[in-house]
Amino acid sequence: xxESPPTAEFVRLWTLHGQSIYAYLLTLTSNDADAxxxxxxxxxxxxxxxxxxMPGTNFQAWAxxxxxxxxxxxxxxxxxxxxxxxxxxxxxxxxxxxxxxxxLDAQYKALADCFNKLPPKHxxxxxxxxxxxxxxxxxxxxxxxxxxAIYEALRRIHNSLFDCxxxxxxxxxxx
Length: 175
What we know:
single chain; Rna Polymerase Sigma Factor, Chain: A
């Protein structure tokens, strides 16, 4: 059974912007478990209200407004827990993210492009290091290298990625 046009459009937009929304939630919550829970709620709410979305407008901005409201609701429900920041602070973070969004999106795209240009051996090391629960010591054990060698290799790769992203976002030709 073929997907209806609104379903296909929602899937396209959510696939395109979902990671950015998740990163935004992490910024507002600074807690993976809370961000995961809220992310699911945001996805459901966006789907349920997709008929209210105006095609051609900024889906990401609309999704961020929904996400911010979900974070506020989540914090109200968890009021008995430790509150790390005020609603005003959340608003300030939201404004900063909105203002910096074009720059952050460009940096994220540049990072993905730069990562894809890495030699396979460097990609493998980065992927191993940033797997859930991985540490430099565990990666060193997997690869039969010293922890110091892993730290040094990661430092060189990080520096290379930083330089590549900087050059890409400044419009220079990456080396």
